[in-house]
Amino acid sequence: MTSFQPLHSVTSQSLTGKLQGFHEALLADYPHICRLACAIYDKPTDVLKTFINSTRQGHAIAGYEVKLHDTPSLLHLANHQQSRVIDDISAEIHGGSVHSDWLLEQGYMSSFTVPIIRQNQFLGFVFIDSVEKDSFTPSIQRDLIMRCASICDAIANELAAAHLLVATASAIRSIANLRDFETGMHLTRMAELSKLIARNLPAHFGLSDEDIEHIYLFSPLHDIGKIGIPDAILLKAGRLTDSERQIMQTHVQKGVDMIDSILADFNLIEANDARIMRNIIAFHHEYLDGSGYPFGLKGEQVPIEARIVTVADIFDALTHKRPYKKSWSVENSLTELHQMVEQGKIDDDCVTALANSLNAAQHIVTTYCDSQEPASNPGY
């Protein structure tokens, strides 16, 4: 059996690290700039969400999302590809929303907002804050726009690479004549549930918005290796025999091999987001007591991103109909997850994060419900 091991360390500098380095260099000329942050835009959902930041004063806002069309001032900047200066935040910004209340609490005095536009597509914003009023003169604005181009390029390139990986894996799945092994709604639920759990984990896990975005993007690829499993097993209407289960379990290594090949082809094997993708695919069937497969990892050997996806995947399987079972209620499914925690199989913090977001979990289950459930056998 392969000795593939979890990739806990970052193999290349993260975007957060790059932004912090950019901020450090900027301080030599502009010591009053106390914060740089980037929010990225998801066009299908119209959601603008926090992504990376470098904060020298105050505390960073994290896990924040807002509909772009609910923020007319930012929508105008995005539509017209314009920057914006606020010379006196305390005079021009009024409380009443989560973001404006947070901004006023930090003591920032002025700000400069720059849209990220690549190939005429709006990708998000860079927010630059200062501890002084009237910090952003026209000449400073021009200089900052030029200097921000490098970090905007890095953000655009990494997002493009991540979406390319997802699109490539999805295309492979589509052309493999897999029919109903996974529905689009299952994949959407996996992304939403994984993000929900990740956002509600305790702070000691140290998941940044950048990490959470990658978990959100890559969690639907967890079972990509199933494209190499024969339909007679993959689509079997009933529980698998022992020999069939052994074949089913090979989908993990098949998925790892497939993704490694894709990463190598795109020269992305050392990319930071590749670590999260590979860990999700390789370890989402591991149990904390060592009884999972294919590597029999225990406890902290299982990366947190894999533990998150494991809980999301089991919860989704429980709450939706399968050929051999009816769908369970959210409450009964959570009871089953808690029992698995007591057995030492899955992560208590991940299950607690899901349980503490019961209404949101129910919303995901009901909103993204399949009209016809997938025939795939999960192979647990």
Automatic annotation (TrEMBL):
Residues 161-370 form the HD-GYP domain. Gene3D superfamilies: 3.30.450.40, Hypothetical protein af1432. The keyword Hydrolase applies. InterPro entries: Cyclic_di-GMP/3'3'-cGAMP_PDE, GAF-like_dom_sf, HD/PDEase_dom, HD_GYP_dom. Keywords: Hydrolase. It holds the Pfam family HD_5. CDD domains: HDc. GO terms for molecular function: phosphoric diester hydrolase activity. This is Phosphohydrolase. It comes from Alteromonas alba.
